[in-house]
TrEMBL record:
Keyword Aminoacyl-tRNA synthetase: no
Matching CDD domains: WHTH_GntR (cd07377)
Gene Ontology molecular-function annotations: DNA binding; DNA-binding transcription factor activity
Organism per entry: Baekduia soli
Protein name, per record: GntR family transcriptional regulator
């Protein structure tokens, strides 16, 4: 490894010779020595990160993705919250969910703070929240990484979302007024226009709006907040599914079916249709794993 002056410095401690650690300065791999020893705790953490997640990047370089200047929308442009903490969290979560900060990538508080135009404090706080969402892993002495996608974590996120939103839509079906239903139908019409224009980002924002409004109609807005925090892994799969042929059109059709049940004040049908709709993302998971194997943890 190198110090701040660019000079090589030796690492102390014990770690397997084959374990390669990404250099935090130049994005290249620096091989840890097999003798001399790291402290046991650091060696265990390194082994845990590189072995249990089975990162696929040992034989390639790991450049920091946020140094790219080719993002569709800059992180700063998406930082639209009310406080610096919320702005940074929202921007980074969106970049991770959309795979602009790809699974396995290493993050730097300094670089992210510079890109977002904030101090390191809100960046650090946002990364802690993202760790709670299972979207980043903070590994002592090694750095912060975007987590690889885990099918089991995706299933957990789906379980939570389906339970919360399924219960919420039942209440919405009992409470919805004609004006509420009209608003839901307008959102679906806007989604159809976004689909026709090929605007996947607008389509996704409208999808979020529709589900948020359904939860709001239930009178239990906490259902949306809890669902949003729990479903980060599921959202990653859903976003990768949007470009698939026919996926958006199917989503629109299923949205109409849900809203029709809400308009008819039929809680059973509304819940059944919403649950079927939410399972769409899971059905596309095998195809996404095949298309992007580097995004996923290897199966044991």
């Amino acid at each position: 490894m190198q110090d701040r002056g660019g000079r090589r410095r030796e690492l102390s401690g014990s770690v397997p010779a084959e374990l390669e650690i990404p250099s935090p300065l130049n994005g290249c791999f620096a091989r840890a020595p097999s003798a001399g020893g790291w402290p046991p705790s650091r060696a265990r953490m390194a082994r845990r990160w590189c072995v249990t997640t089975r990162m696929r990047h040992r034989s390639a370089r790991l450049p920091y993705l946020y140094t790219s200047r080719h993002m569709r929308i800059s992180l700063a442009e998406r930082a639209l919250g009310t406080t610096a903490r919320e702005r940074v969290y929202t921007a980074l979560r969106e970049a991770i969910v959309s795979a602009e900060l790809a699974p396995g990538r290493r993050l730097s508080e300094n670089e992210l703070a510079e890109r977002l135009g904030v101090s390191r404090t809100p960046v650090r706080e946002a990364l802690v929240r993202l760790r709670e969402d299972r979207l980043v892993a903070i590994v002592p002495q090694l750095g912060t990484f975007v987590t690889l996608m885990d099918p089991a974590a995706v299933a957990d996120a789906h379980f939570v979302r389906e339970a919360l939103e399924g219960a919420a839509v039942r209440l919405a079906a009992r409470r919805a007024a004609p004006a509420d239903v009209a608003g839901l139908r307008r959102t679906i019409a806007e989604q159809q226009r976004a689909d026709a224009a090929g605007d996947a980002d607008a389509f996704d924002r409208l999808d979020e709006a529709l589900h948020r409004d359904l939860c709001a109609l239930s009178g239990r807005e906490v259902a949306w907040r809890l669902s949003q925090r729990a479903r980060g892994q599921l959202d990653r799969v859903r976003r990768l599914s949007l470009p698939e042929a026919g996926f958006r059109a199917q989503m629109i059709s299923e949205h109409r079916e849900v809203v029709d049940a809400v308009a008819a004040h039929d809680p059973d049908a509304a819940e059944q249709r919403l649950r079927r709709h939410l399972r769409m993302a899971l059905s596309s998971l095998p195809d996404i794993q095949k298309s992007h194997p580097e995004y996923f943890e290897e199966e044991a």
